[in-house]
Amino acid sequence: MEKSDIGLVGLAVMGANLALNMESKGFAVSVFNRNTDLVAQFTGGMAAGKRIKGARSLEELVSQLASPRKIIIMIRAGKPVDDVIDQLIPLLAPGDIIIDGGNTHFPDTARRAALVESRGLLYVGTGVSGGEEGALKGPAIMPGGSAAAWEHVKPIFQGIAAKAPSDGAPCCDWVGPDGSGHFVKMVHNGIEYGDMQLICEAYHLMRDGLGMGAGEMSEVFAEWNRGELDSYLIQITRDILAYTEGGEPLIDKIVDTAGQKGTGKWTAVTALDEGVPLTLIAEGVFSRFLSSAKAERVVASRILSGPAGTKLDKNVLIPAIRDALYASKIVSYAQGFALMRAASETNGWGLNHGSVAMMWRGGCIIRSAFLDDIKRAFDGKPDLANLLLDAHFKAEIDRAQPGWRLACQSAIAAGIPAPAMCAALAYYDGYRAESLPANLLQAQRDYFGAHTYERSDKPAGQFFHTNWTGEGGDVTSRAYNA
Fold this sequence. Notes:
- By secondary structure, the chain is α/β, with parallel strands linked by helices.
- Helix 5 links the parallel strand 5 and strand 6.
- The longest helix is centred in the C-terminal third of the chain and has 34 residues.
- It is globular and about 80 Å long.
């Protein structure tokens, strides 16, 4: 009996589509699901006539695989993954590979990699982005974990991955050790949160600020998708706004409360842990929280007032919104890559930012034309501290800056919230500022808590305390946090 190249656990939509994708690229696949009825339905339905075999137990799944056995888990993140790993370990031999392809929090992947490796096995935690369509036709894949596993999974992963439109390179490469693959996928999702929020703010400004209908806005997004904003999210926004039901735009019937699965929150929390100002992405997360307070907002809308009768010029504001969206998008990626740089140093991962940008050029949700520019920026200077310092992106920001500022000013004047655009602009202005008011903040901390401060007229690294009231004495706080 022919042995399968890879096994897959979990036949929800992503797992089923990934199995079909692998088979279509020439790999024999064995599949298992806890609900074995799904196995029969899948192998007798969509997978009928294909090199996909069903298994009614994990033992049977393992018996169907060629060595070294490779098993990818596509189930809900959390304890279910631990349970499957615990069941698989006794069934496998040294050198066999367990792969988690779900949206797992990267510390969990690091913990599992250590456990699996201690048993003589190999472990891969891999981000898979592109949704249902990507899983079937070619996702972006971000694997990390046991380096020795890469040579065995590389032909499959790069074979099924999306190919970059500019050069045909597979949107998959080895990321690094332990939880680094899932970390990069988490940051991808954080940037996705920011991108989606920025697009929603552009939509909000056009809808409420300029009184534009869905069809007209769809035409604007269609035009933007032909320029520097060319991206998957702009493309689907164009299509969503053009979609009608009973002759009316469906978008106008969708309730304005947003859901989330937690990866954006993980990204923001990690940024807090690393001390990286991930302001735009955090606003994307907070905006979803605010949207969920629908009942409160309805009440507040009848009590709280805003500016009256602000007149906005469509011919001026639409190009300004485009520039604000583009400049803010650059900031979003700049913040995301800054977080990856910090976490890579903390964890010793040695992330290659140019390689990460390459993996995001196709298949994934945040794929966009300017990822080639990001790849070039990091290829030219691997230790680039911030994308905003790259010559190309500096020139793009310089060009877009007047419209960016006008869009933010117009939103504030009209009382239309644009938290992500405005946070991006505040970050940009803060990052380019040689002097910030944190000197006053440090004085305040020293005044009430004796936290000490550095002086501009003394060598760096020397800390001072002032007895501001004459009653505080010379005792200072033991901890100093810059």
